[in-house]
Amino acid sequence: MNEVKEKIDQIRLVWNNYILEYKSCRKHINFTEDIQTNYIGIIFGYFDDTLEIICDRKPNIKSFYQKFSHHISLLQTIYIHQDFIEEMLYIFKCNVTKGDLKKDENYFINREIRNELIGHPIRKSKIGNRLISASLFGYQQKQSQISYLRYHIDNEHNFDLRTIDIALLIDRHINFLNLYLDKILQKLSKVIKDYIKVLDGLNKSIKKQSFDTIIKILSITFESFLEHKNLYNASDILKIYKLKDVHPRYSNYINEFFFELESSIYEAKLNASNFIAWKYIPQNKSNHRAQNLKVSFCDYIKFVDNNDDDNEKVKPKDNINHNNYALGKLYSKRDYASFELFSSIIKSSTSNNNLIIEEFDHMRINYFNDIEYYCSLSLIEKELDV
Fold this sequence. Notes:
The structure is a single chain. With 386 residues, the protein is an alpha+beta fold. The chain is elongated and about 100 Å long. Helix 10 crosses helix 15 and helix 13 (336-349) packs antiparallel against helix 14 (354-365). Helices cover 64% and strands 6% of the residues. Strand 1 and strand 2 form a beta hairpin.
């Protein structure tokens, strides 16, 4: 069952980090108005909450009523999993229909058992309202079996005692889940491979397109980048670009924009490639691999003698730590009093730096102008080199 959990986690990863983030990925699936409500999150959550019911092959139950309740929970969980897999196959455009599922014995055998016992214990024909079958849970339930009484038209409604091996029931369901989760993952691999090509094209565009055109391309292909930092939205960054020759604070911000863009594209491609290369590793093999990777802490940590005079050479970088903290607070821009406090901390450690003093003065005058404020702060951060 760990395999099923990990596959669902991989699908959720792609959904959260690619489908929801990029139009270029959404166009490959059925991203309808209903699906935009993100109800697939309910499906992921339901699997998280109910897989343990399937995993527990030896539940600690003794009384008939406990067994009765567990068997109903097990069959109903399998049924809902089947429905959710069918929904996911539709969402991700896997070209698997309800008719295809009905041809899969791992699907229809378990579904028929559930329908006979829970969904339609008394089943009648649509035409003529004739009795087709009637089913009732047996009273001699075993830990490893579900037994039930069945009266079916095929047997002239004579008594028929049926027993279901729970282990086989669960094995069929796990095989069903793995098969169709693999189909979904195969489709998502194609989506991600296509997106890597989009990122390659974006990389080339950066080097030869105008800035206006680059922003338009980003808004279509890499839109989350324009949302992840102050002033990276299309409106603000275009204004800053027009000022890049006016003062270093603006050209610095544009240089940072390009540096972070190239870094983000590289990271996005790396993460995408890691997803494509992902394969499930069974627990025993995973543990074996982890054992081989174990190393001693002594290989990486140098222990220092507190009595060694050389330790006096190692001094904490208090100014750097204080400046990092103050910069973080200035980026959050909580209120003007905080600005005065944390800017004074940095100025006190850089009293002879005219650029930093000038930029803080510029920030003070333009406190309510985000473009001026953050461009100056970015230049200060570069000057501090923290």
